[in-house]
Amino acid sequence: MLIQPAVKTIGVNGQISLGKQYAGLQVLIEEQDPGVWLIRTADVIPHNERWLHEPGHKAKLDAAMSWATANKASDANDHAILERLAGRAYDGE
Fold first, then answer.
1. pLDDT tens digits for 25-83?
2. What local confidence, expressed as pLDDT, does residue 69 receive?
3. 78 by DSSP, 3-state: which?
4. Can you name the residues that pair with 45 across neighbouring β-strands?
5. Nearest to 16 by CA among 29, 4, 3
6. Which residues contact 36 (CB under 8 A, 6 or more apart)?
7. What integer pLDDT is reported at residue 91 of this predicted model?
8. Alpha-carbon span 65 to 92, nearest angstrom
9. For 16-20, which contacts have Cβ atoms below 8 Å and span 24 or more sequence positions?
């Protein structure tokens, strides 16, 4: 799809509007030459969440998500689970 160039004006605060359809998206801005910018939408991963995307961890997380999708949550045997976790009979408190 060929998109025609658009003329935008950079405001006194240094901002430019790309349009409401891009509101809230994160973008990468690369200055390729003085006055030449490449702007691309991007998904940015916070440093403390990077480990989730490492191959070994991602595979385990994907397997857990698949299991959770196939095994819907139920409270049908919650008393038995609580008893096993507590190591005693659960009295509801």
1. 999 999 999 999 999 999 989 999 988 888 889 889 899 999 999 998 888 888 888 88
2. 94
3. helix
4. none
5. 29
6. none
7. 60
8. 30
9. none
